[in-house]
Write a structure and sequence with these properties.
The structure holds 2 protein chains of 2 kinds. By secondary structure, chain A is of the alpha+beta class. Chain A has helices at 27-38, 60-82, 90-94, 106-113, 119-142, 145-155, 163-167, 210-214, 235-238, 242-255, 272-290, 295-300, and strands spanning 183-189, 192-200, 228-230, 233-234, 261-268. Chain B has a domain at 100-353. Classes of the chains: A alpha+beta, B alpha/beta. Chain A: This is SSU ribosomal protein S9P.
């Protein structure tokens, strides 16, 4: 009983591309009709047998698929029950690894089924698919590779071609250091944006003394400094306000990385506050790229977060976003 | 009417200096609230031998007050004055360029001042005025005669009286000349008494014979203030001519805000046209020494431009002479009009670029001074991080490091 019978899941096939309308008749029919008129004596002949049992539903393709899915669900459920993997207690179900499905959308599915895919029909299909997906998760965790493969081959027919893009949406692209160890990151604040290149300061240790050459003393490292160039100007020339400058160096201070990197940045758009904020954001992302261990700390300090605050809109009936017009008696 | 006058006088009254009350005898002397705010920091005295040492770079030195303090007699540029007011004592940090200037002055000691005419250039806040002040201090210690003009802008901004003189066809500045004489006497008294007047000084009602010591000459000018103010330019001219001729002592002429002398002044002639600086007696004298038309037998002329004075941008003639045509200045075309007289007055000046950045050890010295004053920080304060942060933020610029870094921060 524990073996997967070949008949559990019949080979799942796609619908043939021939058009099967309920009203469609073979072209030869009309020829026969012509013959009928030509021949004086009419003979009784049977109706052609419909290609699908769902022929008279007018949506044979859709209901065929639906039936097959239901069958697959029924069979795999039976199989899993046999394997004692169903019913699954709640705690076990909760601990299943996630298997995020992205089904074809309503329009794509409509083309596939050659039916007008209403929301109700689409929901019917996706409900079944989700069920199958759950079974696949159980099969995967429960150690039924055969069933898993078969379910996988069924489900992949319904999966969206844009699955990867949709799943990676909203996730940050990992920053890749180039051959010289430079990072390139983008920072934003208000309407400003900053392109930031960062490179670790490279200093050779002082190995002049004979003790250090012999390895008796550990080599001494000179204190290095960070140089920040903004639009080709030193930081102090580009930002005259101390508050702006401190905003730029804050991530370096939090990371304790003052003197570790040299920074080159190009900032565009907005004012000084926005530009310095954008630069700080870009530097924070750059530090994380160089030192991934700081990722959690920077996230908690909200340094790598893009500040979503923007200018509040003006409202009708008000002078500005919040300012009210003066009250006038007449 | 009277009331108004009284009010005006009241507002003019100086605020009294804060003096802390004596502590009660049973008070805990060591309580942080009762101790003086500014702890005196121990630093070696600013001496030429000490600052020329290799280890002196980046170390703070203290300038001890003397009777003939140049900063009391001549005054100081505004930024330096304010800084010394905030510090408990005038501290100064030796930089590599300080040593370079010391060596330059050493070599200039035996040469004519026309051979050593140097102007300190550099971006705003890089330490030009401080360097000039250090040079003045060094020269005084080495028995030079020092004439220091800390704010040359005061010579041209129409703040003192002026009068046309037919004989020289220039506008004399009697009050400023009088003040200059007074200051020269205060600072260089010991040396001036050994120098004798070279020619007879013919005045309105009297004549000072040649061979009179310069101290007597200046004291005579000071004695009859009412009358001698008008004749002060004559006195000054005689004194300067004598200084030119003597070769007992080298003479240092130090001019801050030097670029203000090259251009039109705020003084107006009877037609209300701006007077050229070389038609005013004092700026003309300084320009003549700067251009080498007049020179001291032994000595040097040092100048510093003040790049942050927006009312007086550096004129084209001076920029040509000092070769200041970097991207921080507006582009100068060879077809732009230049004043020929000013081109002559700027001729032969040499630029000495002051480094844009403090080196790390120099910055450490500056940091130590302000840390010693407790202007920032608290217990368990991360001084290393504050230092590196402020150094990075200021890009190594000295003024930004102190004024927009250490003194402006809310970190500590």
């Amino acid at each position: 009983m524990n073996t997967l019978r070949p008949s559990v899941l019949q080979p799942f096939r796609r619908i043939s591309s021939a058009r099967t309308y309920a009203c469609a008749r073979p072209f030869s029919l009309s020829v026969r009709q012509q013959d009928d008129f030509a021949r004086p004596e009419r003979t009784e002949y049977s109706k052609p047998i419909p290609s699908s049992p769902n022929f008279y539903t007018t949506r044979a393709a859709f209901y065929d698929q639906l039936t097959q899915l239901e069958k697959a669900i029924g069979r795999s459920e039976a199989y899993l029950r046999n394997q004692h993997l169903l019913p699954l207690p709640d705690f076990a179900r909760a601990s299943l690894p996630p298997l995020q499905p992205v089904w074809k959308d309503q329009i794509e599915m409509g083309l596939e089924f050659r039916t007008k895919m209403t929301t109700t029909r689409y929901r019917k299909i996706t409900k079944l698919l989700n069920q199958l997906n759950d079974f696949q998760r159980i099969a995967k965790t429960g150690g039924c590779p055969e069933l898993e493969d078969k379910l996988g081959s069924i489900l992949e027919l319904y999966e969206s071609s844009k699955k990867e893009a949709l799943l990676s949406r909203g996730k940050r692209k990992p920053v890749v250091l180039d051959e010289y160890g430079r990072s390139y990151t983008l920072g934003k604040r208000k309407t400003s944006s900053a392109r930031v290149w960062m490179i670790p300061v490279q200093v050779a240790p002082k190995n002049d003394t004979p003790e250090s050459l012999l390895g008796v003393l550990s080599p001494t490292y000179p204190v290095t400094t960070t140089t920040i160039l903004v639009n080709n100007l030193p930081l102090n020339q580009f930002f005259p306000l101390p508050a702006d400058r401190e905003r730029v160096t804050r991530p370096l201070k939090v990371a304790g990385a003052l003197g570790k990197y040299n920074v080159y940045a190009i900032v565009r758009g907005g004012g000084t506050t926005g530009q310095s904020g954008a630069l700080g954001h870009g530097i924070a992302k750059g530090i994380v790229a160089h030192d991934p261990e700081l990722e959690a700390m920077f996230r908690r300090a909200k340094l790598t977060r893009r500040d979503p605050r923007m200018v509040e809109r003006k409202k009708t009936g008000l002078a500005k976003a919040r300012k009210r017009y003066a009250w006038v008696k007449r | 009417m009277k009331k108004g006058v009284e009010k005006q006088n009241k507002s003019r009254q100086k605020l009294p200096i804060f003096k802390p009350l004596p502590l009660p005898t049973n008070a805990d002397q060591k309580h942080p609230l009762l101790t003086a705010n500014k702890a005196p920091m121990h630093a070696p005295a600013f001496k030429t031998t000490a600052i020329l040492d290799e280890s002196a770079v980046g170390r703070p030195f203290i300038i001890h007050a003397r009777e003939n303090d140049p900063n009391r007699a001549f005054g100081l540029p505004r930024n330096l004055w304010l800084e010394f007011r905030l510090l408990s004592k005038p501290y100064t940090v030796v930089r590599e360029i300080t040593q370079d200037v010391a060596k330059l002055l050493e070599s200039a000691q035996e040469k004519s001042s026309s051979n050593t005419r140097v102007v300190f250039t550099g971006r705003p806040g890089c330490g030009k005025s401080f360097l000039l002040f250090q040079a003045v201090e060094q020269c005084l210690q080495q028995k030079w005669i020092v004439v220091y003009v800390p704010r040359a802008v005061d010579l041209v901004n129409s703040t003192t009286s002026y009068a046309y003189d037919i004989r020289t066809q220039t506008y004399l500045q009697p009050w400023y000349s009088y003040q200059t004489l007074l200051r020269m006497l205060t600072v260089n008294k010991d040396l001036l008494k050994n120098i004798l007047l070279r020619e007879d000084l013919v005045l309105e009602k009297s004549t000072l014979p040649k061979g009179t010591p310069l101290t007597i000459v200046i004291e005579t000018a000071l004695a009859e203030k009412q009358r001698s103010v008008a004749q002060a330019p004559l006195y000054l001219d005689a004194v300067m001519k004598t200084l030119e001729g003597q070769n007992q002592y080298p003479v240092l002429l130090a001019i801050d805000d030097m670029q203000t002398l090259y251009g039109k002044t705020a003084y107006r002639d009877p037609q209300f046209l701006p007077i050229q600086s070389y038609h005013l007696s004092l700026p003309r004298m300084l320009l003549e020494y700067a251009s080498g038309k007049r020179s001291f037998h032994k000595g040097a002329v040092l100048g510093a431009i003040s790049a942050s004075r927006t009312s007086h941008p550096i004129p084209l003639e001076l920029r040509d002479a000092l070769d200041l045509h970097t991207e921080e200045y507006p582009i100068a075309s060879p077809y732009d009009k230049r004043n020929k007289s000013l081109v002559e007055y700027a001729d032969g000046l040499k630029a000495m670029p002051v480094p844009e950045k403090l080196t790390l050890e120099e910055a450490v010295g500056v940091f130590e001074v302000w840390k010693g004053q407790r202007v920032f920080g608290r217990s368990n304060f991360f001084y290393d991080e504050a230092f590196m942060g402020k150094y990075t933020e200021s890009g190594g610029n000295a003024r930004d490091f102190v004024w927009k870094g250490l003194l402006a921060t809310l970190d500590a």
